[in-house]
Amino acid sequence: MRFLRWIIGLIIIGAFFYFNFFIYDGEILIKIINVSLFCALFVLVRVMFGPSPADRIVAVDILGILIIGMLALLGLHFEQGFFMDVALIWALLSFIASLAFAKVLEGRRLDE
Amino acid sequence: MNSALELIGMIFIFIGIAFDFFGVLGLVRLPDIYNRLQAATKCVTFGSAGILFGVFLIQGFTSFGFKALLGIAFIFLTAPVAAHVISRAAHRSGIPLAKETAVDQYQEDHELKEE
């Protein structure tokens, strides 16, 4: 069973990188954004099948940090400055959301 | 001059996306909440900071580049605090460790304080 999971994971990762870097015909920034979206898919897998609530909180925190890098790359591709504003606000709000989730997980009230 | 800076920026972006990918792979692969937190937070923090530094090198001293530097400062201030708070809350709410764990010094300190 463990061996089967290893094989399935390696096939999925290898197929994605082959299609992204050798089949797909686009700019290099779009390819990098595709890799970032693939990472976000892995994080969503952890959000779905996480055994404990803390796993889901960690996954949402990491998803916020991934989206900051993705927004910077999108701003570089479209040559628009406002993507970075969205990224800064997303960083601060993701931090506050992580703190609030951790307090709720610990069993304390939010104004303590 | 400008093209050399763009080349160095693209190298930083590639290093950052590689760190992102391996950190997320650790988040899926490792057996325990604390191991997952260690792999994911360290690697993803350096990965996104590398991407933002590459964007700053490509854009130069414009408003876009300064916002990228400000984003690096925010990530370095907030991500370790969030990771520490999440791991502390997970340990206090009684989420079990992996079977292979050798020593748990936080639990030992807690028992000494209660006595």
Structure, briefly:
The complex is a heterodimer of chains A (112) and B (115). Chain A is mainly α.
Can you walk through the features of this model?
The complex is a heterodimer of chains A (112) and B (115). With 112 residues, chain A is an all-alpha fold. Chain A is 85% helix and 0% strand. Chain A has four helices and no strands. In chain A, helix 3 runs antiparallel to helix 4. Chain A is flat and about 55 Å long. The relative contact order of chain A is 0.09. Chain B has one domain. Helices cover 83% and strands 0% of the residues of chain B. Chain B starts with a helix and ends with a helix. By secondary structure, chain B is mostly helical. The mean pLDDT of chain B is 85. Chains A and B meet through helix 2, helix 3 and helix 4 of A and helix 1, helix 2 and helix 3 of B.
Query: Can you give the mean pLDDT of chain B?
Result: 85
Low-confidence stretches of chain B: none
Q: How far apart are the termini of chain B? A: 66 Å
Structural class of chain B: mainly alpha
Q: Count interface residues per chain for the largest interface.
A: A-B, 43 and 47 residues
Secondary-structure-based class of chain A equals: mainly alpha
Determine the N-to-C terminus distance of chain A. 46 Å
> Tell me, what's the shape of chain A?
flat
Number of strands of chain B: 0
Strand content of chain B: under 5%
**Subunit arrangement of the protein:** heterodimer
What share of residues are in beta strands of chain A?
A: under 5%
Q: Number of helical runs of chain A?
A: 4
